[in-house]
Amino acid sequence: MSQSVNWPLPSRRPRRLRRTEAIRGMVRETRLTPDRLVLPQFIVAGDGVSEPIDAMQGRSRLSVDLTIAECERAMEFGVSAFALFPAIDPSLKTSDAREALNPENLLCASVRAIKRALPEACVITDIALDPYSSMGHDGLISDSGVVLNDETCAVLARMAVLHAEAGADIVAPSDMMDGRVAAIRTALDGAGYTGAAILSYTAKYASAFYGPFREALDSAPVDAPNVPKDKKTYQMDPANSREASIEAMLDQAEGADMLMVKPGLPYLDIIARLRGATDLPIAAYHVSGEYAMVKAAAQRGWLDERQCMSEALTAIARAGADVILTYAALDFAQWWRESLR
Ligand code: PBG
């Protein structure tokens, strides 16, 4: 074919390396594998109970027997880490969240049962008071409606010890109180749990993308006098990024083993920033609202679920996350296995 153009032809042509899947595969920079994923699980009391979560299509609150069955299935597909969230019976929720310190509570009992059935599973527990609080907050609240920092840390530290005692491999403080990592590390070490790791929710934003999660646990802040309407006095302002570096510095100094950014996709710049600020592993939480958006659009035929979910998770990994918590972990692992055939 004769050349009809009269501008200089490019000698560098990046498209050469995009010509075939064999070439694209060879030069692919990010590879997401199921072993980097954590599947969050909502646990409810009872036996044989499965309650679908409306705003999170494909995910349900499960009793521990069914949770174990699902974890086992996930492990067959290469996902071996699970973040547990208990849906506490409303009658057990109090303003001081005292059920959090009951060694026989739903979460502690579930950790024991899961570790008994699946000793190889990595069990991650959430350290915050919201599932147990009748006010729907992560911390204790004063009479005048202030979320109390140091008093809350003392409770969180005791909670972490109970979780470690039950067999949790990793405790994950998601409360955003100042100094909680140091409080938890000191308490764990003091109780002899020097091997229990801390995955700190370092840069956790006051995000509206947590809506479906709060539906799943019925844990949204309640509308009552002297109860803050939102979590903005402890979770970070979505407009801030330098502040994330300060949180990272503090968590690392206090002894965190891994740092987390949350949510995921809207905060890729924060993931990249923390990746550059520390050598600790970085985790990102692809949260309930991010999952729900793709699911809802896919249901209407507006998006391709498999491709969009995979693209979102790969983008989070590309930004610098080593570990990703996602409700799509099992779906992704199944797609990944199919892609090998
Ligand atoms: C509670 C907690 C929340 C999530 C994880 N731990 C909700 C909140 O802070 O209100 C959100 C996870 C999600 O949306 O998937 N401390």
In CATH, the topology is named TIM Barrel
Overall pLDDT level: 97
Helix content: 25-40%
Strand residue content: 15-25%
What's the gyration radius in Å? 22 Å
Strand ordering within the main sheet? 1-4-5-8-9-10-11-12
User: What's the helix count?
Assistant: 11
Order of helices and strands: HEEEHEHEEEHEHEHHEHEHHEH
Question: What is the 3D form?
Answer: globular
Short summary:
With 341 residues, the chain is of the alpha/beta class. It has helices spanning 21-27, 64-76, 106-117, 149-166, 180-190, 211-217, 242-254, 268-277, 288-299, 305-319, 329-340; strands spanning 37-44, 50-52, 60-62, 81-87, 122-127, 140-141, 147-148, 170-173, 197-204, 258-262, 282-286, 323-326. The chain is built from 11 helices and 12 strands.
Question: Could you explain the architecture of this structure?
Answer:
This protein is of the alpha/beta class. The protein has a single domain (32-339), classed as TIM Barrel (Alpha-Beta Barrel). 38% of the residues lie in helices and 17% in strands. The chain is built from 11 helices and 12 strands. An 8-stranded parallel barrel has the order 1-4-5-8-9-10-11-12, surrounded by 8 helices. Strands 6-7 form a two-stranded antiparallel ribbon. Strand 6 (140-141) and strand 7 (147-148) form a beta hairpin. Helix 4 crosses helix 5 (180-190). The model has no long low-confidence stretch (mean pLDDT 97). Residues 126, 128, 130, 138, 174-175, 210, 213-214, 231, 287-288 line the site of ligand PBG.
